[in-house]
Every structure is written in structure tokens, then in C-alpha cells.
Amino acid sequence: MKKISLLGATGSIGIQTLDVIREHPEEFSLAALSAGRNIPLCRKIISEFHPEFVSVKNKEDAEALRAEFPGTVFSYGPDGLQEAAVYYKTDILVNAVLGSVGLSPTLEAIKLGRPVAIANKETLVTAGHLVMEAAKQHGTQIIPVDSEHSAIFQALQGEREKNIERLVVTASGGSFRDRCRNELANVTVKEALNHPNWSMGAKITIDSATMMNKGLEVIEAHWLFSMPYEKISVLLHKESIIHSMVEFHDSSIIAQLGTPDMRVPIQYALSYPDRMPLPSGKRLRLEEIGKLHFAEMDFDRFRCLRFAYEAGKTGGTMPSVMNAANEVAVAAFLEGRIKFLEIEDLIEKALIAHKSSANPDLETIQAADSETRKFVKSLV
Q1: What residues does the 1-deoxy-D-xylulose 5-phosphate reductoisomerase N-terminal domain cover (predicted)?
Q2: Which of 104, 149, 344, 358 has the most crowded Cβ, counting Cβ within 10 A?
Q3: Under CATH, to which class is 2-144 assigned?
Q4: Which residues of the chain have pLDDT under 50?
Q5: 183 annotated as ligand-binding
Q6: 79 annotated ligand-binding residue
Q7: Does the annotation flag 10 for ligand binding?
């Protein structure tokens, strides 16, 4: 029985992780979890999965839940999030929280040497050098959960790094993939949240529409697979059937295919290096699909992808600034305070205003993050 700590249990990835646990009750159990403000759902999760430790965002919610579930230990806030990450009975941590809040808990969990299944993009984007250095120092395995990185991870099993020519990360194109830029000026939040392929949370769905999601994944891939940006390509692939590919220097390409179902990479991360059945998963039948479509990525159409490559190559605190600016801008769009294309404008202004610090420590990263959030909020 593998015991799991799940950060972000009430989010999209968290809910699908619970689906995997539910499907394999003899293999997995939920030892600890963190949740934000969705207390009704958190309450249901506690009732079904009986975790020993639970952390929520607010003290009042923790106290209310403690009265309802006297057999469970409760905590709250950043300290509680970290306690959930390092819970002593845990065999593997699944980091599925949204935003840069997942960085510190991940770094603490890495020190324990247990596997970390990471779905939190911002942890690697903002501090990939710290995360991977710590993982190497403590012998901690970092297992990607994102479908694209899981695909690359699977394709590289049994392969040698020296033989890799390039990584190819695929992108669906998001909600507005068939629209040109002049058609995006007045798109609504509802339209932006209508992703054609994947079921994801609001923030990630907007990131998919701007292509920032793919930009973050490029930076993640750089750190996860020690690959220079010049050897990481993005390919538009509307069907989301090929999740990513690896091209080797003998011209061979290995790709990982499957239906768009996040439970597959989640389960693979939990069961690695083994594979387990997923009876409820939809099987891929290529004869039913018929055709797959691909197109070159347009960096002028998707400016956020260009920002990500530039920030990644600059390094230092620049990716943290890009990420922080994006989080504030996306939140403002979801709240109806800015237009869709203004997300890009705000990110660009933050990047231009920032002077990057090389090889930043955690405090420097957090300071750059905080300063950028204040700067962008002042522009909204």
C-alpha cells in the first residue's frame, strides 16, 4: 500500500488523483492532503478517504473541520501546507497546488528523499535550479505529472541522454486556436474557458488559450530533462493524441499517445516504474480518429510562448517575474477587470521593467515574485 500526500486535493489534478486512488484502493491510500477554500468538497474527501492529516487555507475552516472530524489532525496556512507535504507516513508527494505557493513545500519534501510527483508548473518555472539541485543532493526522484512531460519521461525510459536530438512538446492551441489576433480583442471569459480537449481548472485553461501554459512547460522540460532551450520545440497538434515526442540523433522519434485523460499520467507517476490497469480509461482507437493534424507554432500569434522562451534563456529571476505577472493578469481577466489580450501586455511590461538576478536563492525568488505582483496590480 502506497500512502500519498496530495497538495491541492480540491483542484482539477487533485480530483483526478483521487479518482486514481478510488480505482485502486488496495494499492493507494490518502495519508494527508491540503485544500484551499473549497471546504464543502474538502469535507466530502475527508469523509470518503479518511486522511490522517488535513491542511486548509484559513484557521476558521480548520477549526470547524476539526470539530466535525475529531480523528483527523488539522492545520492551516503556509505552515499547514508544508506539514502536509512532509507528513511522516507518506510514501510519495503529489504536488497539484496552483501557483508559486507550491515551491517551499516541495523543497522541504525533497529533503526527505521520497518521490515527488509534480504537477505544479510554477515550482520548476520559478526555481528549477534549486529544485533539481536539491533532488540530486537528497537522491529524490522527481516524476512529472503533466501529460506532456510524462510523455517525454516515458519515451526516455531505457534511453541515453547523449542520444537525444530534441524534445517536441505538443500543444492543442487552446480555446482560440482557430482565431487570429484581431478576433481576440473582445472575447469573453466564458469563451476562454471552453477548452476543446481537456478538462482543467480556470487558470490553466486561460494559460492554454494564451499559450503561456506551453511556455511554462518548455521551462519545466528544460529543468526536468537537462535540455537546452534550443533543443525544445513546440508543435501545434489539435487532437491532443500525441502528448509529446523525443527525437534521437539517429532520426528516430518516440512518441507517447493516448486519449486526453489526465488520470493516465497521474497513475503512471504513482505506480512508476510499474504500470497498472485503468479500466475506466477510454482506449485510443486510431482507426476511429482517422487523421492527426500538426502545424508550426506562430510566436507572433502566441506572444506568451515567445515570452517564456526569452525568460527561460535569460534565466535568473526572469521566469519568476513572468510567472507572477501572468498569475496576476489571468486573475484580473477572470474577474472581468482586463481584456484577454491585455494579459500579454501586462506580462511584457513586467518583463521589461525587471532586471534579472542570476542564480537566485529562494529569498531572492520570493522577493522578485512579490515585487512583480505589486507592480502588475498597480497597472490593472
Answers
A1: 4-128
A2: 149
A3: alpha beta
A4: none
A5: no
A6: no
A7: yes
pTM: 0.93
Query: In this predicted model, what pLDDT tens digit does every residue of 308-359 receive, in sequence order?
Result: 999 999 999 999 999 999 999 999 999 999 999 999 999 999 999 999 999 9
Please state the φ and ψ torsions of residue 212, each to the nearest 5 degrees. Answer: -65, -35
Rg from Cα positions in the chain: 20
**Longest distance between any two alpha carbons in the chain, whole Å:** 63
201 a known binding residue? yes
Q: Find out whether 120 is annotated in a ligand binding site.
A: yes
Break the chain into its structural domains and give their ranges: 2-144, 149-260+282-303, 315-379
SS (H, E, C) 336-366: CCCCCCHHHHHHHHHHHHCCCCCCCCHHHHH
172 is in an annotated binding site: yes
The response to whether 186 counts as a known ligand-binding position is no
Query: Which residues, 6+ apart, have CB-to-CB distance to 133 below 8 Å?
Result: none
Nine-digit cell at 340?
A: 484577454
Smallest Cα–Cα separation from 176: which of 139, 209, 141, 225?
A: 209
Residue 301: how many CA atoms within 13 Å on its side-chain side?
14
Rounded to whole angstroms, the Cα distance separating 333 from 203 reads 10
* Ligand-binding site membership of 208 (annotated): yes
- Cα 186 → chain centroid: 28
Is 243 annotated to bind a ligand? Reply is: no
DSSP state of 181: G
CA–CA–CA angle 134, 137, 138 (5° rounding): 85
Annotated ligand binding at 217? The verdict is yes
The annotation status of 139 as a binding-site residue, yes or no, is no
pLDDT of residue 101: 86
Q: Tell whether 113 is in a known binding site.
A: no
pLDDT score for 195: 73
- DSSP reduced 3-state for 334: helix
Just give the CATH number of 315-379: 1.10.1740.10
Instruction: State pLDDT tens for residues 59-72.
Output: 999 999 999 999 99
95 annotated ligand binder: no
